[in-house]
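Contributing new complexes? Match this layout with thiamine diphosphate.
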Amino acid sequence: MVTQQNITSNTLDKAHLLKMYEQMMTIRQFEERAGREFAAGKIPGFVHLYAGEEAVAVGVCAHLTDEDFITSHHRGHGHCIAKGVDIRAMVAELLGREAGACRGKGGSMHIADVHKGMLGANGIVGEGFPLATGAGLTAKHNGRGQVAVCFFGDGAANQGTFHESLNLAGIWKLPVIFVAENNGYAESTPVTYHMSCRDIAERAAGYSMPGLTVDGLNIFAVYEAAGEAIARARRGEGPSLIECKTYRYYGHFEGDTITYRTREEVASYRSRDPILALRNSLQERGIASAEELDGLDKQVTERIDDAWRFAEAAPLPQPEEALTDVYVQYP
Ligand SMILES: Cc1ncc(C[n+]2csc(CCOP(=O)(O)OP(=O)(O)O)c2C)c(N)n1
Ligand SMILES: [Mg+2]
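Output block (do not edit by hand):
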């Protein structure tokens, strides 16, 4: 297991490293604030927090441009931030405001921004697979070297759509990278109970694609594995499956009483915190000082405060717009 002391990468310069740190910190603070606001009754609907898993979204998206596609799931705030979705529009979406990324009609589980290649968070477990596979087909036809990344959970790996999509992506050699975020649980069910194999990556062999398991708490392990898979996809050599072993710090959803795991387990993961690990690595290698990193943390807090002020002051959609920007079937 890679620990806080020995995470490193020789291929990234200071600007890139600080950008990764800042994005991870933005996700962490965004989620902590969302948790507090939810507890205060400010956010309608369900909220699933991504805190603890930041290294996965950031390590993968560091290789992507706005031309590339991603699909996400119910725990999607981190993917949105890593792909560059505006956090004002995200908070406005959480609050159902017209200025929201989906004009306030999607909420936490349905944030999308197609201009950023973020094709959507998704409340239906396993629905990102066909979307990403379709985006991969588009990318292949476009011939511009675009890729599609599908982020999904360990629970989602047991849906039929997982197998169907990996099979099609394998047959058609689509530029899709399937990124498993194995956080050990699907709701309250441990992965050892719900999965027939030890590692999700083993399943790649069934679809003739490379499969790799990495430490999802180590941003550099994720970054390097994703870099290889994405470069392979851009070269037209087809899909890959990367499994990142990670952990969510909060409950399955906000309000979860969390009776299915111990305090010791949570504490043991928190002691290997992915952001702290990166911070320690940057300081130990003389890349950034504590003061510089504290300054970045403060800027992140200010941006999140600004996003909340903006969203709280933003108007709700008008009643007559209830049926615009949504798919509705009339009888
Ligand atoms: C098709 C479908 N079945 C069940 C649910 C209820 N549900 C929501 S999240 C979840 C667990 C997902 O676990 P995992 O894929 O591991 O993601 P994690 O929550 O751990 O990030 C379930 C069963 C759903 N939303 N959609
Ligand atoms: Mg899970």
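Reviewers usually confirm one structural detail per submission. For this one: The longest helix spans residues 14-39.
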